[in-house]
Every structure is written in structure tokens, then in C-alpha cells.
């Protein structure tokens, strides 16, 4: 994924990965790899990807991934942030109301921020898949929260959930589109007996 890597080198890498996973020697190889796309769209379909770098990456990865029987998925994440503050104010007489200005971060005694993620998973053609609770989304959810798992490396990753946890966050609930991920995973690998080369 780095430098000037040729198609044959990529194909060889997929061949080695597939061989390791199918022969039981894949203890040091990942179960899936993730690539955060620069295109951000909620309409998941490979034809809707508009960034030229995304296309360049995918046209090198999709053919050998398909050849060696890997599953290929598109994933989109939306993060929902909820914020609450605890404030103390001087007593107001009965009938007086607090307006929005009464609830500001400057007056906050305590700040509570929580985040939940919602996932959409599809095939390259946009067909929805019911993988919301599987390892794919669980691994990405952990990554969003700052946990790294060598079995699920993420390339081109640039999102940080903590960037939303600052004093400028709106007290009201809001959602943020995190972005799209291209996923190659080993679940679909078939047992191969032919030559490990990509024609």
C-alpha cells in the first residue's frame, strides 16, 4: 500500500495471504484489511466513488482479491454524539424560566459526552448486507475509539473520535458522517489448489 507497488507484487501478496489462511499458517496474517476512502457518500456503491486516489487503490486491489476468493465490502459509518452538561445557577423565583443562555459550557460543573456509531455494509454493487454486529463493524468501531488490532489493520485512516469531544461541542445531539471504508476480509477464501499467480 506504500510506495510504487506493482500489480504483480500486489497479486503475490494476496496469494501469500490466501495461502497462509487456507493452510492454517495464517497466525501472523490479518483476518481483514481496511482502507478509509477519501470519497464520503452514504449511497454505498463502487460506481459512486468519486476520488481518483480511491479508484487507483481499488483497481489494484479488487482483481487479485476476487481472484483469491476474498470477500470485498463497502462500509459507511455515522457517529452520533450526545452532549449533556450539569450547571449550577442562582435560585430563580417561581415563574421565571431558564433560557438557552443559562446553559453554557462556561458554566458547566460537569460535562458528559457519549458517542454511538451506526454502520451500513454493502457489496461493491451496493447490495445491503446484514453485518452490523460482525467482526467487520466491531473492528472498525474499536478503531474509531482508539483501539488498534493487528488482525484488522486500517490504512489511510484519518478520523479521530476525540476530535468531537471538546468544549465547543453543541449541547444538543448531533450526527457526523465519518466516511466510507473499503474492506477485504478472509471469510470468503476458498481452498485453492491451483498455482498462486494472478493472470
Indicate the topology.
Layout: H1 7-22, E1 32-36, H2 52-67, E2 71-87, E3 108-122, H3 135-144, E4 154-155, E5 174-185
Parallel strand pairs: 1-4
Antiparallel strand pairs: 1-5, 2-3, 2-5
Helix pairs in contact: 1-2
Overview of this structure, please?
The chain is an alpha+beta fold and 199 residues long. It is built from 3 helices and 5 strands; from the N terminus they run H-E-H-E-E-H-E-E. A 5-stranded mixed sheet has the order 3-2-5-1-4. Helix 1 (7-22) packs across helix 2 (52-67). The longest helix has 16 residues, at 7-22. It is elongated.
List its salient traits.
single chain, 199 residues, alpha+beta, 5-stranded mixed beta sheet, 5 strands, 26% strand, elongated
Q: Structural class of the helices, strands and pairings?
A: alpha+beta
Output the strand order for the largest sheet: 3-2-5-1-4
Catalogue the unreliable spans.
190-199
What's the order of the H and E elements? HEHEEHEE
- Please tally the helical runs, counting DSSP H or I stretches of 4 or more residues: 3
In total, how many domains does the architecture comprise? 1
The radius of gyration is: 22 Å
Count of beta strands: 5
Global morphology: elongated
The amount of beta strand, in percent, is 25-35%
End-to-end Cα distance: 20 Å
Largest sheet: 5 strands, mixed
Compute the average pLDDT.
Answer: 76
Helix content: 10-25%
Amino acid at each position: 500500500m506504500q510506495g510504487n507497488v506493482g500489480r504483480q507484487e500486489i497479486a503475490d501478496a494476496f496469494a501469500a495471504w490466501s495461502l497462509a489462511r487456507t493452510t492454517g499458517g495464517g497466525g501472523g496474517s490479518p483476518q481483514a484489511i481496511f482502507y478509509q476512502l477519501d470519497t464520503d457518500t452514504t449511497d454505498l456503491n463502487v460506481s459512486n466513488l468519486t476520488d481518483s486516489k480511491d479508484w487507483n487503490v481499488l483497481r489494484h486491489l479488487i482483481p487479485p482479491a476476487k481472484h483469491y476468493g476474498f470477500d470485498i465490502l463497502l462500509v459507511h459509518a455515522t457517529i452520533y454524539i450526545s452532549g449533556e452538561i450539569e450547571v449550577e445557577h442562582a435560585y430563580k423565583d417561581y415563574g421565571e424560566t431558564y433560557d438557552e443562555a443559562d446553559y453554557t459550557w462556561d458554566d458547566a460543573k460537569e460535562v458528559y459526552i457519549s458517542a454511538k456509531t451506526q454502520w451500513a455494509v454493502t457489496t461493491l454493487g451496493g447490495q445491503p448486507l446484514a453485518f452490523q454486529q460482525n467482526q467487520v463493524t466491531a473492528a472498525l468501531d474499536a478503531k474509531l475509539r482508539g483501539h488498534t488490532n493487528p488482525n484488522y489493520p486500517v490504512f489511510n485512516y484519518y478520523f479521530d473520535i476525540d476530535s468531537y469531544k471538546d468544549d465547543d461541542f453543541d449541547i444538543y445531539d448531533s450526527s457526523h458522517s465519518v466516511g466510507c471504508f473499503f474492506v477485504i476480509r478472509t471469510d470468503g477464501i476458498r481452498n485453492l489448489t491451483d498455482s498462486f499467480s494472478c493472470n
